[in-house]
Design goal:
Elements: E1 16-17, H1 18-23, H2 28-31, E2 36-37, E3 43-46, H3 53-61, E4 68-70, H4 72-79, H5 85-88, E5 93-97, E6 109-113, E7 121-124, E8 127-130, H6 132-139, H7 145-155, H8 165-174, H9 181-190, H10 198-209, E9 216-222, E10 228-236, E11 241-245, H11 248-252, H12 254-269, E12 273-277, H13 279-284, H14 286-299
Parallel strand pairs: 5-6, 11-12
Antiparallel strand pairs: 1-3, 2-3, 4-5, 7-8, 9-10, 10-11
Helix pairs in contact: 4-6, 6-7, 7-9, 7-10, 8-9
Length: about 300
């Protein structure tokens, strides 16, 4: 069996348009070779390559018309926002346009239309995509409430936030009347700035919905003189109770582990009760989490 002719180095190992192939001297017959697949019309990519959502986004962007932009779940992936695993792995692309006549009907693409000027379009690493706030608002039609809250928290996160609470509020008002608007309003009421991870959000929601007081998010932990000694995940300042969520890095990173030990020892020396929670507790022992936190709060004087 004759081996397929090698592609030019500039095209090898990546997706390319048929126009790029022709310009590089690749014949149409070669572009129909069995070592290449056609994920979208006018696109060729290596057979057996990584077919992740990000790969498909990059591939489709090579043939994307200038009046289109990524939206909804696809925009969330581009912005790096937290999504349920089933959506993170979904290779269906969501593409939007302000011109309904050009709305695309392509296999693997879900087309959307918005009225001109109703969403802000930004550039992310060369990709045209709805702004983080507009993306959050659009997700209200597909996400459960708690997942929508996690995305909202991620937008106004402690490190490198991409939105403000005022921008989220404005987005909620603009999306009144759209599908999911009621859920979006409810999610906004639960969003808190300064969160570090979706699991912190999940833990906070668990505590508050069980009737416990709402903790402050990633705020100062102080010594007996009121001097800051650390930043805590979920802080009950009045009761000197600290609830810490331990992510995987706290277990797998030796330097992080030793730093945590010293940090928490210092906090406990100053009279704080520290409760450490991990994903296993949240997943299979939520009642135990609530019992520990309630016991600590009651011991410090809290009453329902």
């Amino acid at each position: 069996m004759k081996r397929a002719e090698k592609l030019p180095p500039s095209l090898s190992g990546r997706a390319f348009t048929t126009a790029e192939g022709s310009a590089s001297g690749v014949s149409l017959k070669r572009m129909r070779g069995t070592d290449l697949v056609q994920p979208f019309s006018g696109i060729r990519s290596p057979r057996g390559g990584n077919d992740s959502p990000r790969t498909r986004i990059e591939t489709y962007s090579r043939r994307m018309p200038p009046d289109q932009f990524f939206s909804q779940v696809t925009a969330a992936i581009i912005h790096g926002l937290p999504l349920p695993l089933i959506l993170e792995r979904d290779c269906t692309l969501h593409v939007c346009t302000e011109h309904p006549a050009t709305r695309h009907r392509v296999r693997g693409i879900v087309g959307h239309h918005v009225e001109p000027g109703t969403v802000r379009i930004v550039d992310v690493r060369g990709l045209r995509v709805t702004s983080p706030v507009d993306t959050w608002c659009q997700l209200a039609s597909v996400l459960r409430l708690d997942d929508l809250i996690k995305v909202g928290d991620a937008l106004v996160r402690r490190k490198n936030p991409v939105a403000t609470m005022n921008e989220l509020r404005t987005g909620v008002l603009r999306y009144a009347g759209h599908r999911g608007a009621r859920k979006l309003r409810e999610a906004f009421e639960w969003v808190r700035p300064g969160v570090d991870s979706p699991k912190e959000t999940e833990l906070r929601l668990l505590l508050v919905r069980a009737g416990l007081p709402e903790p402050e998010v990633n705020c100062a932990v102080t010594d007996r003189l009121g001097v800051k000694i650390a930043t805590g995940d979920l802080v009950y300042r009045r009761y000197r109770v600290l609830v810490e969520y331990d992510g995987e890095q706290h277990r797998t990173d030796e330097e992080q582990y030793h730093w945590d030990v010293d940090r928490l020892d210092r906090i406990m020396e100053e009279g704080w009760r520290v409760i450490r929670i991990n994903k296993s507790h949240l997943r299979s022992k939520p009642a135990s989490v609530l019992r520990k936190v309630e016991t600590a709060l009651r011991a410090a004087g809290w009453r329902p």
